[in-house]
């Protein structure tokens, strides 16, 4: 019975402690990650640091608080967020159920549906702006043709204008979130619905007991992420109303630019800092979800 | 009609009841864009739903730069293209290298870098705009196209790294091991095994960065104020500075500006949808 | 062609030591199988030999040269992975020739070597296909072809047959063995399947919890296992183990199990009367009979497999497996008597598991 064949020694002296040199694999790892680290340091870290430094004076915040435009903007932003997100996500949820179907014309429609998101904002939002022109825009012209009355001056009324900005935002971002939720729906095994049909479930019951539990997490995560991006939606407000009339329709994203134009960079930065208490918790939440 | 057929028809009708409003809602602004672009001046502002005499004259005016807002049309179009392609290429380079280092080479601190990237991705770019403007100013890059290119690369890279890392993680580690045993150096592994297998994701990321740069307004507007160096998108915005600008020319230019992204999106739709939504749905 | 020497090899993951001081030799040209249950460390040991894992302690030497700090590609080894690890975007020919391409070898040399390997493995018609177009067995062969083209000093196999269906596994076992006989390259083969180990190895290294339980030729391990673990691991169906007390009389010895059953033993066994022992008898060492020392049993299940018949019987409270040649008329519920081939019986210390000489 042979166990250990203690063979020829001599040529197998043990080596000392492992050398500290980097293997080529570790070396290249560091080299290849450097471009991004440099980009980050130079174009994220520095600007952020610089911005925070510019916003360091407590007096900036006092001046902000005293500026009625600022308080109005905060209110607008919150309104924009609450209404915009909930409306958009609810519609996305609803439409995702529509777009999962396999009819040919629904598939064709889904191809067109993505256009608002894929196409640049400037031409399309300006197009909407012109549609709303009180004198010659097609909206008011059509209203006049149908009822003989003059349509409202859409963009001159602060409440209307803000609401329209929300609609523009929804128009632009709805396709993306609908797509996400469609993907979420496709991940639900079809057999569950078949089993439910056999068990006698109605459409609503199927949604409540199968679809919603599976989609719930995705819906929540999407809503949070959407909140962050809606906070940063500059184009919808700027291109539609420019913050007007009388700076009444600004949101935090566009306000920074206003102060910049007024040569008040410190206030511009302070505005951003004020947005942070809203943004950081949301970002923290998303990080926890996605960094695995 | 049998009960089943009746149900089928009413089901279909319900779907149409949803589909038609969705179609109108989606296409109306775009239709309006086209409407204006094809209308002569007087017709455009007449509030008609279709011009009596649709014309391509507006496009001709754009192509011949026959208005003072359009005097640099071709140059600005070229700028947009150049910047978009540069952003796409550089983002691809930076993101692919980083994703490879983090996912395959398991570089130390890779997790931290991934988290930093994710963090940057979540912060809305609009809030970074003014600091970026001041920073570029202090780097002396204002009005150089590099400022916009580098800014957009900074914005596009985090999400790109994340998408590439997710895709990269799906490749079995044993491929790398087999290559190592076959004698591959890190660069050979990158070039001969990794890149070919990552091609669909690379296309998705490159397209994403390119479209992001082409569609960008705020940063372009802040960083490039000179008419000669700025992008077509910013030039469109300049029409708004007067009340009697030729809106039909604006819309015609806008249509031209909107066509490439739509075309590119449809061309690469396969890569875009799977590449970009897979990462999101994973959450 | 090379020897492989392991000297006090250790591996620690995080704070946990998973390989404890392993030392053994593999001679030039030998086909050595590392076998053991999941988690025993066999794959880790192989990967350390391949250079895919760092060696925490001790040394490994290939062909007389210590390779602890040598990169995988410089160790002159080739590896066949469980999942084949073929490059999906390359043809079969490119997959096999990849290592030569990396070294910027002559195109003709590469083509020749690839053709040669393809001929040995019957891959000629598939050279321009892609891995996704091949079956599992074909992919397996391409992986082997890739290793052959390297012409290395040592072949490493990491559970290469686990992903194949049973029939294919049997066929591939023979092919791998034939390949080894032809090329005579030192081979280290890892598997959890003891049948593969028994049929293919020149020598088997049985591992358990990061340690070597026993090294030997297949038949050595089968006939003379050092301990309970090896005895029960090697051989299929597994060895029957009965716990009981050794009893002696003037000229005989037996093991008395609970329920009173008496299991016969050669009197030369080195154990004393009253000692607690574990009695091991292989299913093939039992036969239906009725001799003087036969053990009565009750039949539970009869499983005819064609040439043989497997019976599950009960002796006392213990279930015993019997494998006999041919057919039988016995049915469930019947009482039979088992004749034991005493020469092949093994006895173990139940506390330590160590074998007791018989």
Report on this model:
The complex is a heterotrimer of chains A (292), B (283) and C (358). With 292 residues, chain A is mostly helical. Helices cover 74% and strands 0% of the residues of chain A. Chain A has a single domain, classed as MetI-like fold. Chain A has 13 helices and no strands. The longest helix of chain A is centred in the first third of the chain and has 32 residues, at 68-99. Chain A starts with 23 loop residues before the first helix and ends with a helix. Chain B is mostly helical and 283 residues long. Chain B has 2 domains: 3-63, no CATH class; 72-281, MetI-like (MetI-like fold), CATH 1.10.3720.10. In chain B, 76% of the residues lie in helices and 0% in strands. Chain B is built from 14 helices and no strands. Chain B is globular, with a radius of gyration of 24 Å. The two termini of chain B are 47 Å apart. Helices cover 24% and strands 35% of the residues of chain C. Chain C is built from 8 helices and 21 strands. Chain C has helices at residues 42-50, 92-102, 107-121, 136-150, 166-183, 194-200, 218-223, 228-233; strands at 4-13, 16-26, 31-35, 57-62, 65-66, 77-80, 154-158, 186-191, 203-208, 211-216, 240-248, 253-257, 262-265, 276-281, 286-289, 295-304, 308-315, 318-325, 335-340, 346-348, 355-356. A 6-stranded mixed β-sheet of chain C has the order 6-7-8-3-9-10, sandwiched between helices. In chain C, helix 3 (107-121) crosses helix 4 (136-150). The radius of gyration of chain C is 24 Å and the shape is elongated. The two termini of chain C are 40 Å apart. The mean pLDDT of chain C is 92. Chains in contact: A-B, A-C, B-C.
């Amino acid at each position: 019975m042979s166990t250990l064949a203690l063979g020829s020694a001599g040529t197998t002296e043990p080596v000392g402690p492992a050398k500290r040199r980097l293997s080529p694999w570790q070396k290249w790892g560091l080299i290849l990650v450097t471009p991004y680290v440099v980009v980050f340091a130079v174009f994220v870290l520095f600007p952020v640091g610089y911005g925070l430094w510019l916003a360091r004076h407590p007096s900036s915040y006092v001046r902000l608080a005293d500026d009625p435009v600022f308080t109005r903007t905060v209110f607008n932003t919150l309104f924009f967020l609450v209404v915009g997100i909930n409306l958009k996500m609810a519609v996305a949820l609803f439409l995702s159920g529509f777009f999962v179907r396999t009819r040919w014309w629904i598939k064709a429609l889904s191809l067109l549906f993505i256009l608002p998101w894929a196409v640049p904002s400037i031409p399309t939002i300006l197009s909407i702006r012109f549609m709303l022109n009180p004198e010659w825009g097609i909206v008011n012209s059509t209203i006049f043709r149908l009822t003989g009355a003059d349509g409202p001056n859409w963009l001159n009324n602060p409440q209307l204008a803000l609401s329209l900005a929300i609609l523009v935002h929804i128009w632009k971002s709805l396709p993306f979130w609908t797509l996400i939720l469609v993907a979420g729906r496709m991940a639900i095994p079809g057999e569950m619905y078949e089993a439910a049909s056999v068990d006698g479930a109605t459409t609503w019951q199927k949604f409540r007991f199968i679809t919603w539990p599976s989609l719930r997490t995705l819906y929540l995560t999407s809503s949070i992420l959407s909140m962050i991006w809606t906070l940063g939606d500059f184009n919808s407000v700027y291109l539609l109303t420019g913050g007007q009339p009388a700076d009444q329709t600004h949101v935090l994203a566009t306000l920074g630019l206003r102060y910049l134009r007024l040569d008040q960079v410190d206030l511009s930065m302070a505005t951003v800092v004020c947005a942070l208490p809203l943004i950081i918790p949301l970002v923290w939440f998303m990080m926890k979800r996605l960094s695995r | 009609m049998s009960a089943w057929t009746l149900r089928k028809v009413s089901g279909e009708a319900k779907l149409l009841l949803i589909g038609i409003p969705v179609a109108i809602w989606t296409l109306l602004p775009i239709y309006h864009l086209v409407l204006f672009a094809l209308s002569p001046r007087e017709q455009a502002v007449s509030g008609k739903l279709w011009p009596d005499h649709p014309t391509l004259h507006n496009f001709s005016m754009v192509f011949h730069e026959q208005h003072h807002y359009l005097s640099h049309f071709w140059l600005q179009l070229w700028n947009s293209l150049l910047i978009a392609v540069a952003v796409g290429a550089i983002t691809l380079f930076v993101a692919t290298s980083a994703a490879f280092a983090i996912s395959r080479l398991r570089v130390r601190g890779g997790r931290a870098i991934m988290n930093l990237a994710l963090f940057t991705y979540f912060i809305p770019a609009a809030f970074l705009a003014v600091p970026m403007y001041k920073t570029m100013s202090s780097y002396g890059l204002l009005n150089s196209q590099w400022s916009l290119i580098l800014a957009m690369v900074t914005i596009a890279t985090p999400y790109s790294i994340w998408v590439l890392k997710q895709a990269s993680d799906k490749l079995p580690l044993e491929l790398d091991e087999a290559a190592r045993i076959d004698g591959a150096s890190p660069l050979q592994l990158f070039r001969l095994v990794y890149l070919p297998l990552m091609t669909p994701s690379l296309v998705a990321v490159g397209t994403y960065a390119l479209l992001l740069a082409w569609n960008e307004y705020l940063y372009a507007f802040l960083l490039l104020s000179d008419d000669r160096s700025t992008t077509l998108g910013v030039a469109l915005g300049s029409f708004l500075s007067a009340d009697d600008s030729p809106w039909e020319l604006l819309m015609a230019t806008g249509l031209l500006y909107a066509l490439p992204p739509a075309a590119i999106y449809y061309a690469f739709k396969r890569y875009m949808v799977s590449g970009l939504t897979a990462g999101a749905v994973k959450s | 062609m090379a020897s492989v020497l392991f000297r006090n090899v250790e591996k620690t993951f995080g704070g946990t030591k998973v390989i404890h001081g392993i030392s053994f030799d593999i001679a030039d040209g030998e086909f050595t199988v590392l076998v053991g249950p999941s988690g025993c460390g066999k794959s880790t040991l192989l990967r350390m030999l391949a250079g895919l894992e760092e060696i925490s302690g001790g040394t490994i030497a290939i062909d007389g040269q210590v390779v602890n700090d040598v990169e995988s590609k410089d160790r002159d080894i080739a590896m066949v992975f469980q999942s084949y690890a073929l490059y999906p975007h390359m043809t079969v020919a490119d997959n096999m020739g990849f290592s030569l391409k990396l070294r910027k070898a002559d195109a003709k040399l590469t083509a020749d070597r690839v053709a040669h390997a393809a001929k040995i493995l019957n891959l000629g018609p598939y050279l321009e296909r892609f891995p996704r177009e091949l079956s599992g067995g074909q992919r397996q062969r391409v992986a082997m072809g890739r290793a052959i083209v390297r012409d290395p000093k040592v072949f490493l196999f990491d559970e290469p047959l686990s992903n194949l269906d049973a029939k294919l596994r049997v066929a591939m076992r023979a092919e791998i063995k034939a390949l080894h006989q032809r090329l005579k390259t030192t081979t280290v083969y890892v598997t959890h399947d003891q049948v593969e180990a028994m049929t293919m190895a020149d020598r088997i290294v049985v591992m358990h919890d990061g340690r070597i339980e026993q090294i030997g030729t297949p038949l050595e391990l089968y006939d003379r296992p050092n301990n309970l673990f090896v005895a029960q691991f090697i051989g299929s169906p597994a060895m029957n183990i009965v716990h009981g007390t050794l009893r002696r009389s003037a000229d005989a010895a037996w093991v008395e199990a609970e329920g009173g059953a008496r299991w016969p033993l050669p009197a030369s066994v080195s154990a004393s009367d009253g000692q607690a022992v574990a009695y091991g008898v292989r299913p093939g060492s039992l036969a239906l009979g009725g001799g003087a020392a036969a053990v009565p049993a009750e039949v539970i299940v009869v499983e005819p497999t064609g040439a043989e018949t497997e019976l599950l019987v009960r002796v006392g409270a213990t279930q015993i497996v019997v494998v006999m040649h041919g057919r039988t008329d016995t049915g469930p519920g019947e009482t039979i008597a088992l004749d034991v081939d005493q020469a092949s019986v093994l006895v173990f210390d139940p506390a330590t598991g160590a074998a007791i000489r018989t």
